[in-house]
Amino acid sequence: MAKLNLLLLLVLVVCALGLVTSQHRSRKLFSELEREQERSRALDVEFGQLQLEASTWGLHSRVEKIATGALGMRAPDPRRVRMIEPRKDAPQP
Amino acid sequence: MSAAASVPMMVRLPAWRARLALLALLAAFVVLAGRSVYLQSVKTGFLQEKGEARYARVLEVPATRGRILDRNGEALAISTPVKSVWAIPEDVHASRAQLKALAGLLQMNERELARKLSEDERDFVYLKRQISPETAMRVAELGIPGLHQQNEYRRYYPGGETMAHVIGFTGVDDVGQEGIELAQQPLLGGVAGSRRVIRDRLGQVVEDLESIRAAQDGTDLTLALDSKIQNLAFGALRTGVEANRAKAGAIVALDVRTGEVLALANLPSYNPNNRARLSGAQLRNRVMTDSFEPGSTLKPFTVALALELGRITPQTRIQTAPGTLTIANYTIHDAHPGGLMSVAQVIQKSSNVGAAKIALGLPREEMHDMFKRVGFGAAPRLGFPGEGAGRVREAKTWRPIEQATMAYGHGISVTLIQLARAYTVFARDGQLAPLSLLKTGAPAQGERVFAPEVAREVREMLESVVQPGGTAPRARVMGWRVGGKTGTAHKQENGGYAANKYVASFVGFAPVSDPRLVIAVMIDEPSAGQYYGGVVAAPVFAQVMQGALRLMGVPYDAPLEPLELPGADDDAKEST
Question: What is the ipTM of this complex?
């Protein structure tokens, strides 16, 4: 009887230690997850800021000014534009 | 001790004393047991909560506001995090040098900063809202006690004044206040969530207890707007308004097939990123909210109704000589009297007398009904704040003279977007397009107002307006057939018409063979000498139409010949 009790005690201790370690590991993993989520949020924010920057640089008025001013470009005369009809069997874009 | 042992127990204690002691002990146990049962069962929730409060924290999970994109996915409004600096004045202890540095970083006057920090009776003072995260970091590095920072979002609008009236803006708390930002607030705003977590000694979150409410980020919104066409329209409108020294101007472009609003611009405008000095005139979205008497742009509707009812045919001739028509003490004038005119010429030369005569042959109920069916007198219900409905009076109150003047757009008021939408009736073979500010990308089905043949006949007549001899040769563009109608109306003031204040307008579509685009232009109080719609508004229309058709890749339907524009002295060719 005493032997069995001793054995059960041992099992109990092992289980308890296992629980503690797994809890610890889960918390560690969780804080890692938390950090990654934080990083993803930060990247999201950066994405938004970059998008903002892209649309500011790509403003049509700015592009037009550079194209006509610095690069000396202009819209082609309609007489020099040839319209191409899409073929009927061509795949739609 | 020995004495007591030797003496036999003589004293008999009464039995009740022992019982009393026993009972007292028992009672104490019962009280303890009762208390523990009470704590364990009745108060358990409260106690657990208190215990949890020692380590669990509820965190706010902010929702990001959705972006606004144009139809090609270009960003028109984006929220990005910023910081606000606030202080508890009592707790702030800073050296002179620190205060000077702080004032420099926050771009504030040192004296103003000192004043804000000396308001002792207040527990909370915003020093500066919405500063960049970099500046906020440097403020934090100063290490001044009593200074705090909080996360906020700020909305940026790369398009600036070009798009201001469509998109609107948000307030300092990131809630929509104008335009689409206000109209679509529930969709864009999202819902902030919260969750309960366990924090360790270092303040790090170690365990997620529960998600009380999941944060829902705002939805991205794709507008029907095409930023290239919008930019073109805004630029052309600005040129037109400046050249004519006008008080204001408005333009709207609609996709004929889908009913989408491709461009919508107003002047004066404002920069939504910097709204320090903002006046009501700048904020006003004239396209949507301001109704005006449209003038001659309504003539095609009268003619179309008469054709539809079979009262006239395109071959009918109408006597407009001597250029005046008197009904009940009121005389209608033509600016340039003509003689016997065809129906097409009434439109082409914009004859008031001709239009009035056609209108007088129509039942007033039919005319009223037609105005209602093309969308006048009712807000277009685009889901935009402050949409104007215009005004169409009840048919039974119309006197003959009023019916006659309504034929050429007086005594009735409409908004520019209503007018543009009404013209889709001609562009879509008789169908009125349902409008949309959001991208639909699919052809829309509309309500039929006129028969297809009637719409096509009127379209041909409207094309003659831009031809030599018409009122708006300046509306032509090279490569595409264009149709449209000018309007020049006296402005209403104090219940009457102002003698020298006008609203010049032009509404048209192209290409005539298969219309793709309707554009309406309105110039308010042109004061550089010219005030006719064909001179003031038509060039703006032509410039935008040309560019937009090219951007949309619409095939040419007219020979590519250089246009012969009329000289400056050849202008006054239209009546109202």
Answer: 0.72
